[in-house]
Amino acid sequence: MPSKIDEFGGWRGLLAYTLLSSLVSGAVIAGALQWAIGKEVETWRSTRSWQLSALSEVVSPTVMHLARTGALADRYRMQMRFGEAVLLKESNTTVRNLLLAKAHLLPSELVGTSQCLLTHYDIWLKRFELTLAEFKASHGGKDPTPEDRFDVGFSAMEAAKCGSFPKEAPIQFQKQFDSLRRELFNLPPIDG
What we know:
This protein has helices spanning 4-7, 11-78, 82-101, 108-138, 154-158, 169-185. With 192 residues, the protein is mainly alpha-helical.
């Protein structure tokens, strides 16, 4: 009765068979690992690309405009002048356009707040247009000077759902700003 070694043509045949089997198994395992790792790397790249776009195209500009309008709104509430209202209009229009054009880049946590911001900006910008039209009509078509009183009617917006400025917006956007900067660049939060 021949031995198992003889079935492979002796020790050399057994060694060649074992080596070939190991190489084929190793290649299959390596291919599977390469595919799995490739999928992980692609997911990581895709996530990182989205994070970078979200930070640079929506979150960062919105954080800056919210900080700007926060200071402007404080001055405007003390003395409702056209000059401050125009600056508020510039930032409100810019953020509104950003949110509408780049909504796909918004982190999920910012979608609800952004929807309320859009409602607020729609109301505020319409009130600005109406107030400007009223001013011009009562001043013979003249544009207001930066020092002229210009009340867009904050109180009228406070009663509307999402009509008033969502006070959580600057905090939520800042948290996302800090989180994305930490994840992407390992940067500490910015005190502000």
